[in-house]
Design brief:
Number of domains of chain A: 1
Distance between the termini of chain B: 38 Å
CATH topology of chain A: ABC transporter involved in vitamin B12 uptake, BtuC
Number of helices of chain A: 12
Radius of gyration of chain A: 19 Å
CATH superfamily of the largest domain in chain B: P-loop containing nucleotide triphosphate hydrolases
Shape of chain B: globular
Oligomer: heterodimer
Number of domains of chain B: 2
Number of strands of chain A: 0
Strand content of chain A: under 5%
Number of helices of chain B: 9
Largest interface: A-B, 27 and 23 residues
CATH superfamily of chain A: ABC transporter involved in vitamin B12 uptake, BtuC
Order of helices and strands of chain B: HEEEHEEHHHEHEHEEHHEE
Strand content of chain B: 25-35%
Structural class of chain A: mainly alpha
Strand order of the largest sheet of chain B: 5-6-7-3-8-9
Number of strands of chain B: 11
CATH architecture of chain A: Orthogonal Bundle
CATH architecture of the largest domain in chain B: 3-Layer(aba) Sandwich
Order of helices and strands of chain A: HHHHHHHHHHHH
Distance between the termini of chain A: 41 Å
Structural class of chain B: alpha/beta
Largest sheet of chain A: none
Shape of chain A: globular
């Protein structure tokens, strides 16, 4: 068992998968914490679904797929932020409509462009084990960039999250920070498609912070413990994929959910 | 000499501002000046425009017309009416005060100590009581060493004894730090002893002056009813308008 594990984690494509998964888990901790605190999970879902439309557009226009996903995700993030500012529109309904219509549109467009064979399942549920070195570079670059920006604006985004008005009076540019946060989420979602897929990305962002809540006494602790829980889920998911021959993306999410349940119901771990 | 001193001490002066939302006038022709070391209390019924006026003072809203003069580099400390505590976020009282951007632990402690809640420093924000939370919010408002403190219903959810104590603390802070205070209150009698000037607002300024004067003003009595001031001797004097339930002036008479 130990030998085969050692062999597993020294194989090239597994190492790629591991590096990609861990980089994502590390940024998903703090970023996902903000999604939980701000109750933006539906927002994340909508962005993820719209990423599929990005793939379709990328394929149709014959442009770099990763780049077209990023551009369309950022575009949708800005559109959603603008729409949210409109009074009288129920954000909930709006997000629901956009999420599913863009997903459906993405699938339809992909099916129509029959000149290219597309593995839809890879986009929906992730294909971590087929990750290329270029994919890995994208993920690492985005992870490093997002970490730097988050570190730089951490206190201000946190302050705006706790009380936007109070933060604004204390000199924080709340609107700009909200936009930065949304764009960071869009960036991470657009590169994490390969890891867990469109349908499961939000869970990678949300489940680790939710699991970490009971173990944390400060926002920073929650973010770091979420990163750790995310990383453990990635490793477990990869191992499970190998030994049980199950798809990696769902296996990672199942591992994260199991950790969440374990921590949630473990006696004494959760206050109140 | 006193006059010039108070001129220089004007922290913010608002002149004849008005504000409408979707065609409905919320504030009309409001004048307001807050000077260093003085406490001004805004009272008025629900929907009188108190919060709108405070948001204009804070710079969060722009008035439709009128003039606002703020002292250069005016530092404002703000205590919001309520705070939506997000139970998904672990946040200690100490970290909450640090979110003001102040990293200096001794300053945070000084602020907590002033409000006599230093013992709550490491407590989670979701675990403090309603009365304690008001003090935590006030401590946060003190973090930027403000020239002007703006307090929106500071005694909300605090029991009677606690309210008196809180208002005492506010006037103590105003005295010792020399900052001006603008606060919103529902009940004039609770803030009487802690306030220098009362402005009775109902879309326009109905009456203003020293608390004992305002509590006898017919405009005030019209808004709040005579029962509100039954333990204060009432003297009659001019009475130039009345309000209906929406706060609109129903008729004016100059007799």
């Amino acid at each position: 068992m130990i030998d085969s594990l050692l062999q597993l984690f020294t194989t090239d494509f597994v190492l790629y998968a591991l590096a990609a998964g861990l980089s994502l888990a590390l940024v998903a901790g703090p970023l996902g914490s903000f999604i939980v605190w701000r109750r933006m999970s539906y927002f994340g879902d909508t962005l993820a679904h719209s990423a599929l439309l990005g793939i379709a557009i990328g394929l149709l226009t014959n442009s770099n797929p990763q780049l077209s996903i990023i551009v369309s995700c950022l575009f949708f993030a800005v559109i959603l932020t603008l729409l949210e500012r409109r009074p009288g529109v129920s954000t909930d309904t709006l997000l629901g409509i956009l999420a599913h219509s863009s997903l459906a549109l993405g699938v339809v467009v992909l099916a129509l462009s029959d000149s290219i064979r597309v593995n839809l399942e890879a986009y929906l549920f992730g294909a971590l084990l087929t990750i290329s070195s270029v994919d890995l570079l994208w993920i690492i670059a985005v992870a490093v960039f997002v970490s730097i920006v988050l570190y730089r604006f951490w206190n201000e985004i946190l302050s705006a999250t706790v009380h936007a008005e109070l933060a604004a009076i204390e000199g924080v540019n709340v609107r700009r920070l909200n936009l930065i946060l949304v764009l960071l989420i869009a960036l991470v979602i657009s590169v994490s498609m390969k890891v867990v897929g469109v349908l499961l990305i939000t869970s990678l962002l949300i489940i680790p912070p939710a699991a970490a809540r009971g173990l944390a006494q400060s926002p920073e602790q929650m973010a770091m413990k979420a990163s750790a829980i995310g990383s453990i889920s990635i490793v477990f998911g990869l191992v499970a994929a190998f030994y049980l021959d199950v798809p990696v993306g769902p296996a990672i999410v199942v591992a994260a959910s199991a950790i969440f349940l374990l921590l949630h119901f473990y006696p004494g771990s959760q206050k109140s | 000499m006193q006059a010039t001193a108070s001129e220089n001490n004007v922290l913010i002066a608002i002149k004849s501002i008005s504000k409408s939302f979707a065609g409905r006038k919320v504030l009309e022709n409001i004048d307001l000046a807050i000077t260093r070391g003085r406490i001004v209390t805004l009272i008025g019924p629900n929907g009188a425009g108190k919060t709108t006026l405070v948001r204009i003072v804070l710079g969060l809203l722009q008035p439709d017309g009128g003039e606002i003069q703020r002292q250069a580099a005016l530092r404002i400390g703000y205590m919001p009416q309520k705070i939506q505590l997000e139970s998904t976020m672990p946040l200690s009282v100490f970290r909450f005060l640090q979110l003001s951007g102040c990293r200096d632990e001794s300053l945070v402690e000084a602020s907590l100590d002033l409000l006599r809640i230093l013992h709550l420093k490491q407590r989670q924000l979701v675990d403090v009581s309603g009365g304690e939370l008001q003090r935590v919010l006030l401590a946060r408002a003190l973090m930027p060493s403000p020239d002007l403190l703006v307090l929106d219903e500071p005694a909300q959810g605090v029991d009677l004894a606690g309210q008196a104590e809180l208002y005492e603390l506010i006037s103590e802070i105003s005295n010792s730090r020399g900052c001006g205070v603008l606060m919103i209150s529902h009940d004039l009698h609770l803030v009487m002893s802690a306030t220098d000037e009362v402005i009775c607002l109902n879309q326009h300024i109905c009456c203003h002056g020293k608390p004992e004067h305002v509590s006898n003003d017919p405009a005030y009595l019209d808004l709040f009813g005579t029962r509100a001031s039954q333990n204060i001797a009432v003297y009659t004097h001019h009475h130039n308008h009345e309000h209906d339930l929406t706060g609109k002036v129903t008729h004016s008479h100059d007799d």
